[in-house]
């Protein structure tokens, strides 16, 4: 997307809404570091999510719970520095918004001020309504997140598909409507039946962005390391791998090791 003068036009909340309105799908990926964000932005991704999945993917934790607000801000700063066009959305980490709305607002303000990101994302519906109201009143755009919400993994007990039962599906419908009415600008739907995701996407104004939620969402998101095949063992049904980088990087590393050991690297033209 470029202007008449050829400069890139930044993706904003308005761009995202206009995409839904004209039926154009939204492509979102996660990013946690400068180099990767540069590549994804250059390729034309619409939204980069500095997800709290950094806790798993970058730091090797089993869940998203341990990552701190300071660590999220560090990742977000690196991504923001890389980006020319994409909208950068940053996850509010576990513990930074659930206890009360004052803490939620101060966490969101820290992310926006210290990283230069364009929006925050948080998990949950009516339970966090007060926090959402307060952050939105401060002019900070919010992306919601319903369905499988990994910050509640110890409540769920498993990472299986959510909202298969009618009671949970109805709560999700109600929460989606609430987030729409409160003024969130988009909504992630994670690991729920495709039929329910379609119903929600059609019944609310704001765009839905699915992960394991089927083809009827207004956009899709994947964790970049999963999509590139860096995370070797993670192979859920919803994941499409576009590369097998675990093997490719491993092969390159083996070739490098061999070259060093056999005195082939560096050669005469690779030294001063
Ligand atoms: O943290 C994350 O990567 C996410 C996506 C899976 C939506 O929340």
Topology readout:
Blueprint (H helix, E strand, L loop, with lengths): L12 H10 L3 E5 L3 H10 L3 E4 L3 H4 L11 H14 L4 E5 L9 H15 L3 E3 L7 H9 L4 E6 L5 H4 L9 H17 L3 E5 L3 H10 L4 E4 L7 E4 L1 H4 L17 H17 L11
Parallel strand pairs: 1-2, 1-8, 2-3, 3-4, 4-5, 5-6, 6-7, 7-8
Helix pairs in contact: 2-4, 4-5, 5-6, 8-9
Bound molecules: 3-methyl-2-oxobutanoic acid.
Summarize the structure in words:
There is one protein chain. The chain has 272 residues and is of the alpha/beta class. It has 2 domains: 13-241, Alpha-Beta Barrel (TIM Barrel), CATH 3.20.20.60; 244-272, no CATH class. The chain contains 11 helices and 8 strands. The protein has helices at residues 13-22, 34-43, 54-57, 69-82, 101-115, 129-137, 153-156, 166-182, 194-203, 224-227, 245-261, and strands at residues 26-30, 47-50, 87-91, 119-121, 142-147, 186-190, 208-211, 219-222. Strand 3, helix 5 (101-115) and strand 4 (119-121) form a beta-alpha-beta unit. Helix 2 crosses helix 4 (69-82). The N and C termini lie far apart (43 Å). The model has no long low-confidence stretch (mean pLDDT 97). Residues 30, 49, 51-53, 91, 145, 188, 190, 211, 221, 223 line the site of 3-methyl-2-oxobutanoic acid.
């Amino acid at each position: 997307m470029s202007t008449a003068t050829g400069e890139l036009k930044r993706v904003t909340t308005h761009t995202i809404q206009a995409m839904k309105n004209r039926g154009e799908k939204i492509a979102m990926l996660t990013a946690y570091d400068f180099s990767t964000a540069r590549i994804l932005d250059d390729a034309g991704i619409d939204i980069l999510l500095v997800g709290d999945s950094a806790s798993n993917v970058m730091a090797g934790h089993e869940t998203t719970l341990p990552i701190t607000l300071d660590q999220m801000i560090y990742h977000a700063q690196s991504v923001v520095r890389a980006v020319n066009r994409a909208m950068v959305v940053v996850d509010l980490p576990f513990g930074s918004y659930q206890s009360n709305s004052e803490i939620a607002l101060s966490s969101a303000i820290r992310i926006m001020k210290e990283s230069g990101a364009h929006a925050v994302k948080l998990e949950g519906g009516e339970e966090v309504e007060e926090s959402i109201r307060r952050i939105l009143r401060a002019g900070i755009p919010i992306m919601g997140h319903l369905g499988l919400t990994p910050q509640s993994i110890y409540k769920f007990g498993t990472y299986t598909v959510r909202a298969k039962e009618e009671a949970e599906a109805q709560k999700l419908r109600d929460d989606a409507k609430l987030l729409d009415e409160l003024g969130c600008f988009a909504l992630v739907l994670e690991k729920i039946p495709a039929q329910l995701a379609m119903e929600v996407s059609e019944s609310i104004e704001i765009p839905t962005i699915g992960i394991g939620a089927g083809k009827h969402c207004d956009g899709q998101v994947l964790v970049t390391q999963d999509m590139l095949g860096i995370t070797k063992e993670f192979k859920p049904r919803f994941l499409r791998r576009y590369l097998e980088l675990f093997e490719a990087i491993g092969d390159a590393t083996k070739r490098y090791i061999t070259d060093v050991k056999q005195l082939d690297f560096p050669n005469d033209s690779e030294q001063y």
